[in-house]
Amino acid sequence: MSFITHLACPECGQTFDAGKIQTFHVECQSPLLARYDVGAIRAKVDRDEITRRPRGMWRWCEVLPVGDPACVITLGEGDGALLHARASGAEIGVPGLFIKDEGTNPTGSFKARGMAAAVSKANELGVREFVAPTAGNAGGALAAYAARGGLRAHIFMPKDAPAVNVAECRAAGAEVILVDGLIDAAGRLAADKAASEGWLDVSTFKEPYRAEGKKIMGCEIAEGFGWQLPDVIIYPTGGGTGLVGMWKAFEELERLGWVSGSRPRMVSVQASGCAPVVRAFESGAETCESWPNAATRASGLRVPRPFADRLILRALRESKGTAIAVSDEEMIEAAHWLAAREGVFAAPEGAATLAAARKLKASGWLNGDERVVLFNTGNGLKYL
Ligand SMILES: *Cc1c(COP(=O)(O)O)cnc(C)c1O
Ligand SMILES: [Zn+2]
């Protein structure tokens, strides 16, 4: 099953035991990243075997953290469609436009991938109770995976989070605490409770494994393009789990010898009402400053200061990518446009990637010959 060897801090290199519960490196204020015995995986499995396995995220089990298959808690996450968006692509002048549709995941968003990995690994290590702050979809996913595993979830949510997120958490039997403030305020309350009650805090990047689940999106993209990578990936960035995860996946796939060619340019899309990554990218900074009065209907993008800011900015720069903000109006218009042309009813976060692609084509950053993947990270039905 898993070939995980240890965890490491990307800032100072210190290593940590993956057989124990780990959070983040406090001294560096950095996430921990999982490391695998790539040589042993190379010797034991080949990529075609992965392709022959039953669909879903866990067919990549060698590069996921759970050792005992009996500990995996799954709802069938992963392997959302990779669609060639011919009509939209022709219209915006990017014929090689694709949509990776994550809106078909359990609980209606790609948060399912991360929570499946994090809750399963913690389950293996004996954790029974979880806490998380959420702008919306992470709570729904945590509640569902906890329910499925017979575990307890406590969820701190801004009191103006979408009502559907409160409802899905409560339906799954989670405790929901509504907070006066944004996800950062919810995060502080969750961390206090984790410390006082002994619950595991599964906040974005405060534990190492949600990024591992989301990393598999990068593996699926590689496989979907015949073990090469597209030229550009446009990703709606809140905490950056998927962006950092996919960048990590590309490195692992290269070391496995499973992909050839160059890596994609990575693009972060944010909301103009909360764009700390865009601001830091443009100013040349290595970290983000907290965005004051963060406001956007794209709840997944309402993250004033991502904890993994250094890793996000590094991935954007190493890949020769960029960061761009779009307004809520542009997202909503793009969501209708995509639904009408492709039949994909995207979350505003996902639709934001189309709005970004249009702008990048207009500015000449995209020349129109690239293969470009838009990530629709959630189902639009959750936002009605
Ligand atoms: C959480 C979320 C995002 C942001 O994802 P990160 O990996 O945290 O950057 C984007 N879209 C939706 C629908 C989300 O729920
Ligand atoms: Zn460190």
Strand content: 15-25%
H/I helix tally: 13
Instruction: Please give the share of residues in helix.
Output: 25-40%
Q: How far from one another are the termini?
A: 40 Å
> Shape from CA axes?
globular
The CATH top-level class label of the domain at 82-108 and 211-383 = Alpha Beta
Q: Please summarize the sheet with the most strands.
A: 6 strands, mixed
Helix and strand element order: EEEEEHHEHEHEHEHEHEHEHEHHEHHE
CATH architecture annotation of the domain at 82-108 and 211-383: 3-Layer(aba) Sandwich
Average pLDDT across residues?
97
Rounded to an integer in angstroms, the radius of gyration calculated over CA atoms is 19 Å
Fold blueprint:
Elements: E1 4-8, E2 15-16, E3 24-25, E4 30-31, E5 33-36, H1 38-44, H2 47-52, E6 82-84, H3 86-92, E7 97-101, H4 111-124, E8 129-133, H5 137-149, E9 152-158, H6 163-171, E10 175-179, H7 183-197, E11 200-201, H8 210-224, E12 232-236, H9 241-256, E13 265-271, H10 276-283, H11 309-318, E14 322-326, H12 328-342, H13 348-362, E15 372-376
Parallel strand pairs: 7-15, 8-9, 8-11, 9-10, 12-13, 12-15, 13-14
Antiparallel strand pairs: 1-2, 1-5, 3-4, 6-7
Helix pairs in contact: 4-5, 4-8, 5-6, 8-9, 12-13
Bound molecules: pyridoxal-5'-phosphate and zinc ion.
Pyridoxal-5'-phosphate binds at residues 109, 111, 137, 204, 236-242, 300, 347, 349, 377-378.
Account of the protein in words:
The structure is a single chain. With 384 residues, the protein is α/β, with parallel strands linked by helices. The protein has a domain of 200 residues: Rossmann fold. Helix content is 39%, strand content 17%. It is built from 13 helices and 15 strands. The protein has a six-stranded mixed sheet with strand order 6-7-15-12-13-14, with helices on both faces. Strand 3 and strand 4 form a beta hairpin. The N and C termini lie far apart (40 Å). The model has no long low-confidence stretch (mean pLDDT 97). The site of pyridoxal-5'-phosphate has 16 residues, from helix 9.
